[in-house]
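May I ask for whichever protein you like with its backbone structure tokens?
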Amino acid sequence: MKNKLVLPVLMACASGTLPALASAAPGSVVIANYRFPDALYGLLEQGIKIPVYLVNTRSEAATQGSDGSNTHEYVRIGDVTLFAKDLKLGLRDVQVQESDNGIRLSKEMRKLLKSINNKQFDDQMRIPVSAGSSFTLDQKKMRLLLNLSKNDYGVNIRPREVDIDAPESDDLSGTFSYNLGAYHTESGYGDGWSSGYLNAKSWISMGVDHLLIDGSGYVNENSSDTQMNAAMWERDYQGMRYAAGMLNGWAMQSLASVSGIAGGGSVRRVGGQPGQLAQA
């Protein structure tokens, strides 16, 4: 709450530029031609949190009636702590977040941003991030601007059904779920019997490949039975999901992106867009 009350004062006090050779007035500090009162500079020495914005530049050359100029869109991507030391401003604790409008930074750029800690601005109020990319400080609005080169630009997030064959991770992963039950019953005549069951389901994934194993078992005092309900392999390719395997009964209405219908045991291969069924 303390920083929120200070920020409007910070913007008002730092909004006026000074001549390059101007000296600080009594009770103030000059940093990059901006004058900060001593009390405000003391707060900067402790550090205050400000937002980080990605400067998204769009060319208007293709727009009808446009003069070919560029427009700038500012997309908030996180927060950073702004601090002052030895009459210079610096950054630490860069926190990058996912953008709600579909813009995402690459893994390499995220690592570079998080590695920026206790770095100070140069005389032009810039902090280089990579070749052609840098941080600049918007002192009038007290926000940090990230200017990216074309090589370091973020990736536009597309819906999963469009970019289904581009997983975020190629590592091996999986899930396992089960349902276990046991019963014991005794009658008033001294008779008794016991039974139990187990349903187990496992998904194993590696990149675009997925394997489903689903089975069940039942046992009582006189008999036992096991059943393989599903053994299905799926692969995502060019926005499509293909599957092949065995399903013992289409009673299950949905198998990942494959929708089923009622019927008996079946061995088949299917393919189609997510949520659709195409029989071969």
Summary: Residues 47-156 form one domain. The first helix runs from residue 2 to 13. The chain has three helices and 19 strands. The mean pLDDT is 73.
